[in-house]
Amino acid sequence: MRVVVQRVSRASVTINSEVVGSIGTGLLxxxxxxxxxTAEDVAWMANRCVGxxxxxxxxxxxxxxLKDVGGSLLVVSQFTLYGDCSKGRRPSFIRAGDPEISExxxxxxxxxxxxxxxxxxxxxxxxxxxxELANEGPVTLIxxx
Length: 145
Prior knowledge:
alpha/beta, D-tyrosyl-trna(Tyr) Deacylase, Chain: A, 6-stranded mixed β-sheet, two-stranded antiparallel sheet, 2 helices, 8 strands, 21% helix
C-alpha cells in the first residue's frame, strides 16, 4: 500500500464536470494498492494518516494532527503510484493491484478513516478524475506498508 499525503487548505475531485468530493483544511490522500495488503496493513495506514502530526502548532512546528485542527480527508485512488519508470519510456503498472481487489481494499480504508470520526470525501474508483488542490506548506509525504 502506498499513500501520498498532501497537506492542503482546499482540495476537490471532479468527474465529468461534477464535483464529487471536496474538503477545506486537511489532507489529500492519493492511494494505491498492490493487492497483497492485509487487514492489518489497511488499518495501520488509516491510523497513521489520521494521526500524522503535520499541521502547525502556535509556535509554527508541525505538531498537530488532523483531529487537532478539525481537518478533513479527501481520498483518491491512484494506481499510477505503482508505475515503474526504471526501464523504457512508458511506465509499467505490473505492481499495481488487481482492480477488483484494490477497490475493496480502498473501500475498507475509507471505512476505517470514517470510523476515526473525521470527515472523509472521496473520488470514484476507476474514473477519470480531475484533482485540484491548494497544497499548504507545501507538505507532501509518501507512506508505504
